[in-house]
């Protein structure tokens, strides 16, 4: 069944993210057993060492406890989750013409091919469990840049994969890290050689279409010395009346004097449990920038972690989350400062409405070796009504006195006086609230490239109207 995007637009359905295609697939596994794991590995034609990792991860998953300190995850039943869904498409196509019409129409509606033409140096598009399209500009290949899907990286660059895979996020980290390594599929692999600076971003977009399914992509990025990369991650899914699961993993390595900006706009549907893991290790004089927007999701538990290993390494985090009715977004970050003269700057914002719950957690550990370091955390929460909730939960371990440290948290409701003032100038109450919210989110919008800032503002509008998921 072809998705009629033009008809969809003619009907002026504003939420393009909720386009549903027929649930067609060439292969699917349901549940989480040893037989399922072996099937997935066999279907993907994997080497024995990867199957061994999957089976060990399954054993670890069964041993580790379910988190009991955050949102309620009792609705999740892994015996009913489709752990692998292979779409009816040629995998890893180099041209959009090779992608089936219904899948291509979905990515057209999301604007991915257009963004590729206008603003990106490479694009990866994952649909359910596999990458269906991948491209990289020739000039990057000539400079030695590798950008491919992770399954291809395992086959083409096995030594490089073995050197870094699971070195940032071990399977023992938590229950859903173990789950990820048991059933992972798809994702991106990026290698930027020493001294290469990419002036144009590359983007991977992850679309989950199948109802009751999980998506478990693995992203591994290595930025060598004196190199620079801006990587953009996009995520979305249509809404179904059953639980979907996202438990991907992102492992990042930023070497000495290198920089990486990792931008994410997540717009999962409100039947999604988003239990993702992200972590970076930063070398001497290296820099990591996180820019993140969290929308949609029934439940999110997401805490990007920065390990500032090298002296003079830095972390900047700019993020926003928006929780509406029925949503519990538990987000934040973890920072470990190890090297001397390390610094971290955190600017986090959250918006809640219609009884939505936003929680910001910061888990900071400054080691005794991190002398002459700086750490600044600012989190602001805006509640649009009296039914919503916002919490800030810091957990800090500071093991040196030689540090400048501040943590500022502000939680408040939208100002009736401001609303009244704007309405007295002829602005409707609805538009007045939208203006205040967009102004509140402006620092995050400014940190994104123009096209993605526009997307984020559109998502805020959809959230204000209650039309996401």
Write the layout of secondary structure elements.
Blueprint: H1 5-10, E1 27-30, H2 34-43, H3 48-63, E2 82-86, H4 101-110, H5 112-119, E3 122-127, E4 130-136, H6 138-142, E5 146-149, H7 150-156, H8 158-164, H9 175-183, E6 188-192, E7 202-207, E8 214-215, E9 218-223, E10 228-236, E11 244-246, E12 249-254, E13 259-268, E14 272-274, E15 277-282, E16 287-296, E17 299-302, E18 305-308, E19 314-323, E20 328-337, E21 343-352, E22 357-366, E23 373-383, E24 389-398, E25 403-413, H10 416-424, H11 429-446, H12 450-465
Helix pairs in contact: 2-3, 3-9, 7-8, 10-11, 11-12
Count of distinct structural domains: 2
Q: Beta-sheet strand percentage?
A: 35-45%
Structural class by helix and strand composition: alpha/beta
Helix fraction bin: 25-40%
* Radius of gyration based on Cα positions: 22 Å
Number of strands: 25
Distance between the termini: 22 Å
What low-confidence regions span 5 or more consecutive residues with pLDDT below 50?
1-13
Q: Helix segment count? A: 12
The main sheet comes to: 13 strands, mixed
Shape: globular
Give the overall average pLDDT. Answer: 91
């Amino acid at each position: 069944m072809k998705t009629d995007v033009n008809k969809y637009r003619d009907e002026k359905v504003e939420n393009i993210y909720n386009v549903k295609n027929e649930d067609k697939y060439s292969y699917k596994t349901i549940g989480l057993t040893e037989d399922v794991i072996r099937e997935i590995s066999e279907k993907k034609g994997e080497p024995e060492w990867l199957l061994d990792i999957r089976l060990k991860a399954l054993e670890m998953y069964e041993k580790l406890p379910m988190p009991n300190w955050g949102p309620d995850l009792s609705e999740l039943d892994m015996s009913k989750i489709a752990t692998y869904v292979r779409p009816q498409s040629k995998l890893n196509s180099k041209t959009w013409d090779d992608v089936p019409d219904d899948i291509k129409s979905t990515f057209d509606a999301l604007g991915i091919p257009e963004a590729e033409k206008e603003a990106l140096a490479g694009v990866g598009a994952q649909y359910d469990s596999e990458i269906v399209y991948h491209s990289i500009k020739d000039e990057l290949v000539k400079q030695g840049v590798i950008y491919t899907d992770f399954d291809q990286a395992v086959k083409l660059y096995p030594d490089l994969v073995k050197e870094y895979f699971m070195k940032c996020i071990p399977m023992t980290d938590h229950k859903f890290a173990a789950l990820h390594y048991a059933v992972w599929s798809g994702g991106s692999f990026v290698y930027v050689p020493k001294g290469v600076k990419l002036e144009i971003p590359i983007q991977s977009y992850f679309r989950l279409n199948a109802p009751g399914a999980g998506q478990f992509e693995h992203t591994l990025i290595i930025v060598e010395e004196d190199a620079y990369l801006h990587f953009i991650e996009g995520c979305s899914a249509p809404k179904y009346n059953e639980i979907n699961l996202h438990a991907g993993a992102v492992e990042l390595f930023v070497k000495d004097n290198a920089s990486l900006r990792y931008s994410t706009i997540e717009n999962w549907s409100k039947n999604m449990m988003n239990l993702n893991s992200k972590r970076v290790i930063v070398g001497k004089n290296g820099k990591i920038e996180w820019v993140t927007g969290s929308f949609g999701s029934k439940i999110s538990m997401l805490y990007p972690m920065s390990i500032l290993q090298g002296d003079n390494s830095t972390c900047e985090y700019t993020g926003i989350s928006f929780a509406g009715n029925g949503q519990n977004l538990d987000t934040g970050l973890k920072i470990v400062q190890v090297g001397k003269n390390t610094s971290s700057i955190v600017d986090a914002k959250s918006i809640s409405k219609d009884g939505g719950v936003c929680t910001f957690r910061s888990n900071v550990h400054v080691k005794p070796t991190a002398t002459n370091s700086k750490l600044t955390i600012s989190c602001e929460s805006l509640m649009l009504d009296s039914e919503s909730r916002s919490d800030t939960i810091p957990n800090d371990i500071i093991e040196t006195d030689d540090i400048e440290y501040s943590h500022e948290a502000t939680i408040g409701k939208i100002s009736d006086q401001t609303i009244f003032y704007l309405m007295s100038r002829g602005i409707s109450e609805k538009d007045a609230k939208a203006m205040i919210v967009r102004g509140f989110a402006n620092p995050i919008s400014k940190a994104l490239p123009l096209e993605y800032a526009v997307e984020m503002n559109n998502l805020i509008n959809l959230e204000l109207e209650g039309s996401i998921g």
